[in-house]
Every structure is written in structure tokens, then in C-alpha cells.
Design brief:
This protein has helices at 2-24, 260-292, and strands spanning 38-39, 45-49, 54-56, 60-61, 69-72, 80-81, 84-85, 92-95, 104-107, 116-122, 129-138, 147-153, 156-158, 163-171, 179-183, 186-188, 196-203, 208-215, 224-230, 235-243. It contains two helices and 20 strands. The chain has 296 residues and is of the alpha+beta class.
Length: 296
């Protein structure tokens, strides 16, 4: 009975992650002679240590003349298209034996910032076919602890961009029961109206639970310390800074608003210079006036 619940605990989150691929396999192109590409079965999550070579597997049959591309789920620009790389990072490459169905994304010397959800996709006449893969990156450890918990994500984001943090915790005998997010002492929940999304995944194989916090259209108020806490009160935190990169609009050829203080300072300088000149003149006139009464 216990094993049955363990299986459900693993299958349900992974089913959600892979549901897109399963659903898309039911679509067909308008031309029966050009069947829809189909993803072959592969793991939906991988765990690597910092410095290892990560391999995210993606296999597609019925590809025809279409191209396989990889991208991070949080970014619109592709990492690779076909065997070409579109990122200025030579750690990323595609492993594709000629004539095979394999289009694996390879990341050499993986680091904590590489963690997250990746997307293997194929364009089609009906819609893009997508397969999502979760990459977990853990720090090197020399001794095994009862519980290992950490947050990964970018510490600096620009206003209007997406805050994406991933918290993962590994237990000694089994994954922790749950993970929660907090900010300024308040528990965070998924709020579609505020564009706040929380997703969780569990792997019994690696004894790991993962929670991904995504906040779209970040504002200055979203900056601060984010806390991730397990059900047995193990805690870690990470600070996120939201940068305001936009500037006030002003007409070319006129002084911007923030130049007012500079103009005031300049005027004050001119005013002080005039006062000094006036003072010298008064002293000279006073001396001349006194000398009028001087004996000759």
C-alpha cells in the first residue's frame, strides 16, 4: 500500500509536466502525407552537480524537414535551432548523431544559474510541439547532510521582466513533504491576477522536491528577500533586486527635469560671485571715501 502512494506522489507532478507533450500527440497536420512529429519517451527531469556535464534528452520522430529548437521556458529567444547555437556561451551544444531521432541539449560545466525548465520544441502547421524538461543543479558536497536546501535564480532583474526562483530540497531517506515561499513574512501563493505562479515537482529517485516561483512583469515592490521553507522548517533565502532602467521623457534640446537642481546650483554660484564682487567694490569705495578726509 505504501509503495502505491509513493508511485502516485511521483506520477502526479510528472504527469502535469509532461501533459503538454501527451496532448499534442493527438493533433495531426492537414496533409496526411506529412504526419505530425512525435516526441519519444525520455525522462522529464535531470539532476546534476555543479561542474558536471548536463545532458537533457529530446528525441523526435517524423521530423521531416522541420527543425528542433531548444530554449529556456522563461525566455523567448532560442538557445539552439537544429545543430546551430544562438547563445554566446560555448558550454551549450547539440548532440545529434546524423540520421538519428536524438536532439539532446548538452551543457558543459553546469552551474547553479543553469537550473530551471527547458523546452524542446518543433514547429508544425497546427501549433508548436513542446516537451518540457526540468534541470536541477546542486552544489558539490563533501559530506552528506540529512537535508540539503537551496535557491537558484537571478539576483538582479529589470523592471517589467520576470522573477524566476527555484528552490529544491533533498532529504536523506525521502523528499521533504512540501516547500513554501515567503516574502516579508507573508506566505506566497499562486495568484493569476497578480501574475504570481508556483509550481512543484517531486522526484523519489533523487529524494528531491522542487518549487519554482515565477513573478511576471516585476515591479519595484517585488524586490526583497525571498524565503523558501520545507515542511520540517529547514529554511534558505535569496535577495532579488529590481532595477529601474527607464528614464523620464524630455524633449531634445531642452533641459531634463533632473537638471533643475544643477541649474539652481549654477545660479547660486553666479549669485555668490556677484556678492563677492559687490563686497570688494564696497570696500574700495569705503577706502576712497575715508581718504578724501586724509590730510594732503
Amino acid at each position: 500500500m505504501f509503495n502505491m502512494f509513493e508511485d502516485l506522489y511521483t506520477i502526479v507532478p510528472l504527469f502535469i509536466l509532461g501533459m503538454t507533450t501527451a496532448f499534442q500527440d493527438t493533433y495531426f497536420d492537414e496533409d496526411p502525407s506529412d504526419p505530425l512529429p512525435r516526441f519519444l519517451s525520455n525522462p522529464s527531469n535531470y539532476t546534476y552537480r555543479v561542474g558536471q556535464t548536463a545532458v537533457l534528452k529530446c528525441e523526435v520522430e517524423n521530423l521531416g524537414e522541420k527543425k528542433v529548437s531548444w530554449r529556456r521556458a522563461s525566455e523567448s529567444s532560442p538557445l539552439t535551432v537544429g545543430t546551430l547555437t544562438f547563445i554566446d556561451d560555448n558550454r551549450f551544444s547539440i548532440r545529434h548523431p546524423k540520421g538519428s531521432t536524438k536532439w539532446h541539449l548538452v551543457i558543459d560545466k553546469v552551474n547553479l544559474e543553469d537550473a530551471g525548465i527547458y523546452e524542446c520544441q518543433v514547429p508544425s502547421k497546427v501549433r508548436h510541439l513542446r516537451s518540457h524538461i526540468l534541470l536541477i543543479v546542486r552544489e558539490r558536497r563533501t559530506t552528506k547532510t540529512a537535508l540539503d536546501i537551496q535557491i537558484t535564480g537571478k539576483p538582479f532583474v529589470e523592471k517589467g521582466d520576470t522573477i524566476l526562483l527555484m528552490c529544491n530540497a533533498t532529504g536523506k531517506d525521502h523528499p521533504p513533504d512540501d516547500l513554501d515561499w515567503f516574502k516579508n513574512g507573508n506566505k506566497l501563493l499562486t495568484q493569476y491576477a497578480n501574475k504570481v505562479y508556483i509550481r512543484k515537482f517531486v522526484s523519489l529517485t533523487t529524494k528531491t522536491i522542487v518549487s519554482i516561483l515565477e513573478i511576471k512583469d516585476a515591479t519595484l515592490e517585488d524586490a526583497g528577500m525571498y524565503v523558501c521553507r520545507t515542511s520540517d522548517l529547514q529554511i534558505t533565502s535569496a535577495r532579488v533586486n529590481v532595477l529601474k532602467t527607464d528614464t523620464s521623457n524630455w524633449k531634445r534640446g531642452t533641459a531634463p527635469k533632473n537638471s533643475t537642481s544643477g541649474a539652481t546650483s549654477s545660479n547660486n554660484g553666479t549669485y555668490s560671485s556677484h556678492n563677492f564682487t559687490f563686497l570688494i567694490l564696497m570696500i574700495v569705495l569705503t577706502v576712497l571715501k575715508i581718504c578724501v578726509w586724509c590730510p594732503r
